[in-house]
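The following record pairs a protein chain with its ligand, (2S)-2-hydroxybutanedioic acid.
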Amino acid sequence: WFGHVEPAAKDPILGVTEAFLADPSPDKVNVGVGAYRDDNGKPVVLECVREAERRIAGNLNMEYLPMGGSIKMIEESLKLAYGEDSELIKEKRIAAVQALSGTGACRLFADFQKRFLPDTQIYIPIPTWANHHNIWRDACVPQRTFRYYHPETRGLDFASMMDDIKNAPNGSFFLLHACAHNPTGVDPSEEQWREISYQFKVKNHFPFFDMAYQGFASGDPNRDAKAIRIFLEDGHLIGCAQSYAKNMGLYGQRVGCLSILCDDELQAVAVKSQLQQLARPMYSNPPVHGALVVSIILGDPELKSLWLKEVKGMADRIIGMRKALRENLEKLGSPLSWEHITNQIGMFCYSGMTPEQVDRLTDEFHIYMTRNGRISMAGVTTGNAGYLANAIHEVTKS
Ligand code: LMR
C-alpha cells in the first residue's frame, strides 16, 4: 500500500529545531523557530499563565467545548483585536470561533474561502511565513503573490506593494501580517497602512490579517492592532487569525481565534455556523485547557495587567538583543551595515545572509536558523550575542 510514499521534505522552520536537538555540541545556538526564550535561553511560562493554571487546578472538568470553542475566550479575543469598546462586537457582526492557534485559524479561513468563495484566489506577500503557502495550497485556494520587501534597503517595498494591490483584479483576497511581519520584521507605517486601506477600498479587496504577534512589535497589544483598526475605521469587512502562542507563550496549547467581520448579525450567525461545520469533521471541537487560561487572564483586570507587563518585558528583551547583536557586529569591524537589525521589529531579524552563509553558520559554528537568513531574535541572549556576532562576521566578511 505505501511503497510509493516518499519521505516528505523537512519543514524549513520546525526541521531546524530537529537538527538543533540532534547536535551534541555545547556551543549550539537555536535562532530558528520563533519561540521566546529568557536571557538564559530557557523557555518561559508567564507568571499570569502560572496563576491562571493555579486557579484552574482541581476545578476543570474535561467536557467537550462547543464546536466553536470557548465563548469567553472568543469574547476576550475579539476585544483584543477589534478594540475593547468596539461597536462591531456590540452589533454582533463578527463571526468567530476558537481555532488551533494561528495556523488553525488561517487554515479554517482558507477552507471557508474554498467552500464559499471558490472562484477567489489569495494574494500572499513575498516573502512570508513558509507555512502560509502550505495552508492555502492544502485548502486548494490558488495563490498569487505581491511584492513586499526590498532586499537592498532591507525595508518595505511600498511602491511595488501598492502597484501589486492596484493591479490585482477587483475583489481579490489578500493575506496581510497585522504586525511584526514574519520573516522580515518590516511593517508598513501607520500612514502607509492608511494608504493601503484606501486602495483596498478603491479595489474592493478583502483583507485577511494574520495577527500572530500582537504585543510583540511594540510591547502594547492595542498599538499592534493599529493596522486592523485603520481598516475597521475605513469600513472594510475583514478576516483575522489570532494566536496566543507568542504573546502568552502558549505555543503547545494551540489556542487562537478566527474571526470574520460580516455585514450584519444574521450573516455572522450563518458564517459562524459554517465555520463550525468545517471544524466538526476535522477535529470536532478545540481543546479546552489553553482556552481557559486565556479566558481567565484576559477576563481578570489584575491578571490582564500582569500579562501586559510580561508581554512588554518580552518585547523589550528582544529590542535589547537587537542592540547587542548589532553593536557586537560593529565592534568586530564588519564592513557591512547592520542597521536593519535594530530597524526591524518583532521576533525576527531578516539578516540578508544567503543560504550558503547560513549553512556555514550551522556547519562551522553550530548556529541553527532558517536558510532564508531569518534570525529569531528571541533565541539571542546576553550570553550568546557575542558568539553569534562573531560567527556572522566570519561568514559575511568576504
Ligand atoms: C515561526 O515562524 O518560527 C513560528 O511561527 C513557528 C512555526 O510554527 O513556524
